[in-house]
Fold:
Amino acid sequence: MTIEHLCVVAGIDGSALTSAVCDYAAWISLTLNTPLKLLHTIESPSNTPLARELTGNNDSNYNVHLLEDIVDAEQRNNKLHVQKGKQLLAFALSRVQEFGITELSSLQRHDNLIDALLALEASIEILVVGVRGKDHEHQADKMGAKLDSIIRCLHKPIFVVNSDYLLPKQIMLTYDGSAVAEKALTMVAQSPLFQKLTCHIVCVNSDTQVEKLLNAAKQKLSQHSNLTVMTEQLVGKPEHVLCDYQAHHNIDLTVMGVLNHEHLEEWLLGSFTLKMLTHSSHSLLLVR
Structure:
């Protein structure tokens, strides 16, 4: 039986956030003393105009020649994508090596990104990705189409980058006492990533029992980590009051638990996770 060695995986695609993804992945890899793997995927083209024309034409000789043209065009296009991907990986390797990374590898797969990540899932300790790829990189109010699927499918912590690299000094843990919030709390307490930082444990709830809940969470963190811990109860629309708190206190990173996606209607209408990803001005670590 093969033993899977855990590593930090950074998904890169050449978008504007690629450099920041590399930097955060390098920081995480160094801090956790865990190998770093850079991943680039090349997806096969589908439903091309030539293919649609071929399907609708009944001339067999014409179709044969057209099919040859399609295959030739796709081969040339694939070679171009492979070459660009190799150049991108070379850039990323050079960038993370500046951090002093020694346990480092790269992987280029001809695969859908989701399938590639699922194939690697057993070896992933933390996945680092940009909040949006090349298709949406100029749309600051949206997240990448693939990120939604990644969050749904992958059962590993996901570090979502949405701004230039900044070494975290203050983090915000969104907390409500749920099982997934407890898992996020435990990660903050135990992970070397958060040692010697200031952690703001924040709960958005008007209930009078919240103070007791926050104090219990603070005690757990104080007992098991070298963190400066603060607590805050907020009232209002969660994504708004949390982002306002984040800005006011210069929070560098938000850590939050993500529920298993059993409620499809919530995802169709837009979940709290989605709203935080599109409203927050700093990176988020999502804990499953």
In short: Residues 46-52, 262-269 have pLDDT under 50 and may be disordered. The beta strands are 7-11, 36-41, 104-109, 124-130, 158-161, 170-174, 198-204, 228-234, 253-257, 283-287.
